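Q: Could you fold this chain for me?
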Amino acid sequence: MIKAPGTIASYSRFLFALFSACGILAVLLLSSCGSNSDAVIVVSSEPIMYLYAEQYNSQHQGANIEVHYNSNPVDYRNKRQVMPDILIQPNPAGTYQMQWFQPLSVRLPQETYPQLAAQYSEVSEKRLLPLAFSLPIMVWHGDQPGAELPLTLGINQLAEMNTRKPGEGDLEYVQFLPIWNPAFLHWHLRSRGIHLNFQEEGVPSWNKDELMREVSMLQDWTQEQAGTAAQIERFQEHYLYAPYYALLRQERVGYYAADLQEYASLPAQLKEDLDFAWFGSEGHIPVLSVLYAAIPVESRHKKEAQQFLQWLISPETQKELMEYTLEQELPDFGFFGRLSANSTVNEEEIPRLFPQLQGKSPVSSRLIFPPPMPYYWQELERDVIAPFLLDSILEDPPPQHDELQQRINNWLAQQPKD
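A: Sure. Below is the predicted structure, expressed as structure tokens.
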């Protein structure tokens, strides 16, 4: 059985975490260690929030924004340790969990992406405020076709460009494999209009026949473009010991699917001679996840919390925060390490401050934004759905959809109850 490589993605995640942690340490040391009843408590999964709060407090007399880090801020519902006034994290709640949060009076800027504006007012009923998002990219070395590539690049275009298809012997080069980054499988499905989500707890909203048909297509594509299972397994054992940017330079692989947030935060020397296009299908780009802010109904400082959020979503504020981040020589890219929910910020300010994005601003109409997802969705994707999708591509015969439902049910049964 072929095993999906972990070294390419995990090595990059390690570097991303290392540089971010080291860069933000100085800010953490300046933060208050204690809490007081007058402070507006922000619990965030984003370390850069310490820097943003410091700026707000310095600009607003009497302001007292206090930040606490938590990789999953909505944990407060189970642990009850710190009662937050604001949560900032990707996907704090699914559409059926909105009652946890206070409706907001925060006014969105006109330049907010229309899909996010509609989601804010209609889907979440103004309970989830969109702040930022990331996109998937296809990365290649400068020797690969570059300037003539379209703004979006998908597996159909890769197949058309693949001039080094497998022969009968051992492989020394593979253009691309969907299994190299397990998250890519979710990205591809979303680009094809298949959204893995729940309509209510544990009840899939996707069409199982469409899902399995698309997974079968990925299995066929993998065999046609990269060779037999035995060839792929030997190639991975021999060569996939290095991070993807090294393999691209060595011409062991042609393209690699990555998260813009992770890629952009790598040191410049690791990205030398690399380029990228947005990953997509038929011109559609799947948004990976949206970073939201929300105010729990139990918040004791709702007015002050909303004032802070109104400041945070201002295009001028975001411009100042990104400039200040660069002045502090921190590695975080863009706004919260992502693209902004404000299209003008992405089209004007981010390319000015981060030249790697010049000429690559995503077109609003091409973006496919996911609905709000349950707070545990990232773990569910990683621990349950991604392994199932990998098994479906790598195993013969592949597992049936009923097994996916059983795996999901077993995983949910082990989670704390809200």
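A (continued): Confidence is low (pLDDT under 50) at residues 1-33.
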